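Purpose: get a first structural picture of the assembly so the mutagenesis plan has something to point at.
Setup: two entries, given in the order below. No constraints added.
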Amino acid sequence: MTVSVAARLEPIDGCRWRLPRGSRPGMHVPGIVYADAAMAAELEHDPALDQVANVATLPGIVRASLAMPDIHWGYGFAIGGVAAFRLSDGVVAAGGVGYDINCGTRIIRTTLTRSDLEAVTDRLADELAQRVPAGLASQGPTARAGSELDAILRGGARWAVEHGLGWPDDLETCEERGAMDGADPGLVSARAKERGRGQLGSLGSGNHFVEVEAVDEVFDDRVAAAFGVSTGQIVVFLHTGSRGLGHQVCTDFLGVMGDAARRSGIQLPDRQLACAYIRSKEGQEYLAAMRAAANFAWANRQAITHAVRGAFTAVFRRSADALGMSVLYDVAHNIAKVERHADDGESVEVLVHRKGATRAFPAHHPDVPARYAAAGQPVLIPGDMGRYSFLCVGADGAMRETFGSTCHGAGRRQSRHAALREQRGVDLVSLLRAKGITVRVTDRRLLGEEASSAYKDVASVVEVCDRAGIARKVARLRPIIVVKG
Amino acid sequence: MGYRTTEHTADIGIEAWGESLPLAFEEAARAMFSLMVDLDTVAERATRTQTVHAFERGDLLVGWLNELIGLVDSEGLVFRRFVVSSLTERDLTARSYGEPIDPARHSPHLAVKAATYHRLALDDGPPARVHVVLDI
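Result (structure tokens, whole complex):
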């Protein structure tokens, strides 16, 4: 049984709230929730807070169970959850990464501006929808099996670039340069490989998208210049992950970890929190399989990048190079990584789980690409399809407080069912068209489920991160074309 | 026999019921595929058999639904009818009837990533009831 802890949220300041250690039995550390007063009030009856408390009971957790302002009800971990564990006596939880391993975002620049799109918006939308397969069981252009799939699981976006699906420079601006070391394809089950073999270069369904967006406001000229964006510029924003392959790796290891936890006597407050000690065989095997799935996701976003470049080239009759279609950045928001962080003034290696949270390293961090060293790591925050998305930058506060992490999106506030009910009879395609947004979607019902009102306003989510100093706003992006499953 | 969806902010819960637990399991599978496609449009041209072993019956339900989800991605199949022929504490055998996805006919909707253990509940009834949350 979960204990309701919501009433115990204590204000720290205007954007931080504490869930004290005593909120439920067994918490090793407090919970810290980043939220404004309105968000905190909305959280009052949300099971997500119980999940923040549950994570605090896991062995080896460091400092606090954290929740970003886009926190919402997940299973096991809340979505928007961040937690770091000591390597010596801490755990790794498959549910702390989630089913869509390395679900993440990527922005591709262009040298185009809004006016360049006016006459060709529909054609570009059609080209993108045709070249980026989306929807239920969507398949990419080529099936990849056997040793080729294993090479993808090891090489990630690097494999894709080596096989003609991108430019070497694309890798310079990917988290992990598009491939994590320590991936072991041999630990990815046959079922996972069967699910993924046809899916490289496909978007999937749900909240995943390809959007063509325009930069409509710049908040930080210096950083925007470093990132190569300016007002009016057209960019492409991708959001997708490791498809069925990653989902199956999570499913497989939830079973393995459930057994491991039972054997090692870890008391689980929730089956979805199944975990194994990082040092254990199961823990190490999960991490090696997770890295393989993460690499599949990086290869997938790279393959989609290639398709997007093809679509622009077909419409504008200029090469992607001539259109300036370089990768601004690519970042994971469902992942677990060994990183060095300060704990009690001492620098230690910990395993950071980001379950719907984005890495947000500040300027001069060694893992920030050299070209952005003085600015910081780009942080790409998708909003909802009817409003806007944000480009942010990592900040020092993230290193001090959140293990180098910040929010990952708007966060749902309404279930799919409730959203559909509210949007019944509303012609969303026309409504969006009136706002200058062209939509291509394989299933119209999805539009109702993904309507703006189903999400928190991402602007207020980003505002809390900015005020708390765990990321800073750089620019706001408005959608022009939305392609979804 | 029947099913309905339950509210979950990011994902979808399904509640299914029937005269016996195997029938409730079958309804849960129908509920899951009803989120993916219009079941009335699916023909029974392909069959697949699933066998699942687990520590308890709840895990059998989650394991079985995950087997079916795997077949959607790996073989491109969707199903409309399910027969759970054997259900014990630790083993399940079922046969599922459907066909390859045809976007033109099936009006495909949501992809289901996985069946989860979150708020998993089984009740022998009568009527037997199950509740499972699906990751969308």
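Chain B has a mean pLDDT of 95.
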